Amino acid sequence: MTPKQQYTFLIKQKAQELGFMFCGVSRAEFLEEEAPRLENWLNRQMHGQMHYMENHFDKRLDPRLLVEGAKSVVSLLLNYYPEQPQPTDTFQISKYAYGQDYHFVIKDKLKSLLAYIRETIGDVGGRAFVDSAPVLDKAWAKKSGLGWVGKNSNLITPQVGSFYFIAELIIDLELEYDGPIKDYCGTCTKCIDACPTDAIIEPYVVNGSKCISYFTIELKDQIPQEVNGKFGNWVFGCDICQDVCPWNRFAKAHQEPAFDPQPGLTEFSKKDWQEITEEIFKEVFRKSAVKRTGFNGLLRNIKFVIPKNED
């Protein structure tokens, strides 16, 4: 086994020990294929009020601008699929937000992985990334063979579907690189057909500013009336395009205690949601990603999805 193979094996083995579902490695280089796609998406204003997407265009496409001397991008998947989803007759939040905020949970695991690499291999420079810096995580995961980017623009992995977080370590160490896998979406259009706001404007292109997740999390203004009645029960995020994806029949419950639902959350009735106080909000969602929308934002979303005759 060459040193590169040995290092790659050790990193993947440790990633598994830390609870990551899959780990893949790609060469740190300019994302040639993504550059025109990202530019076009931004030019068409599909990011809405997510102005941060316009920042650091070059860094998004070249990890060597984020980590000096970067040689490898280590992509990791962490499962968040719950054993018991919320009942469908109540207000819904995305499954990824049931438990503790993933940023903190994954960051700790990545720090442990980086520390292990330094202890075992030597003085390796690098940084950990969890959805909080200009890194195109799906593009890197795809390059390293962890899945393909589906028509709903989510990464899909044949063995498990798409209910997972993606994270990266960008390091200045040469490793053994994986290659991409085939796209298995075929002729299926279930995600496109199911999207109530027509956010998937064509296969593989999502207008972020039309997505229920955008309206209920990113948008700080009033939700436009033209989408009234289209949200179903979704009040934070949306899982529709994942729930209907045939590949998610392979999803298995996660083994990460930090992602277990906050106590009482899965028992919340519509009445409980409507009567939620700021005190209960702070208690139940103290460590949750739901904090991002804020108490008033959540109330706005709940009010928006209640049919006028029930108001």
TrEMBL record:
TRNA binds at residue 220. It comes from the Bacteria. It holds the Pfam family Fer4_16. Its EC number is 1.17.99.6. The active site is at 131 (proton donor). Binds 2 [4Fe-4S] clusters per monomer. Residues 173-204 form the 4Fe-4S ferredoxin-type domain. Its cofactor is cob(II)alamin; [4Fe-4S] cluster. GO terms for molecular function: 4 iron, 4 sulfur cluster binding; cobalamin binding; epoxyqueuosine reductase activity; metal ion binding. It catalyses: epoxyqueuosine(34) in tRNA + AH2 = queuosine(34) in tRNA + A + H2O. [4Fe-4S] cluster 2 binds at residues 195, 211, 238, 241. Pathway: tRNA modification; tRNA-queuosine biosynthesis. Belongs to the QueG family. PANTHER family: EPOXYQUEUOSINE REDUCTASE. Monomer. Catalyzes the conversion of epoxyqueuosine (oQ) to queuosine (Q), which is a hypermodified base found in the wobble positions of tRNA(Asp), tRNA(Asn), tRNA(His) and tRNA(Tyr). This is Epoxyqueuosine reductase. It comes from Adhaeribacter pallidiroseus. The gene is queG.
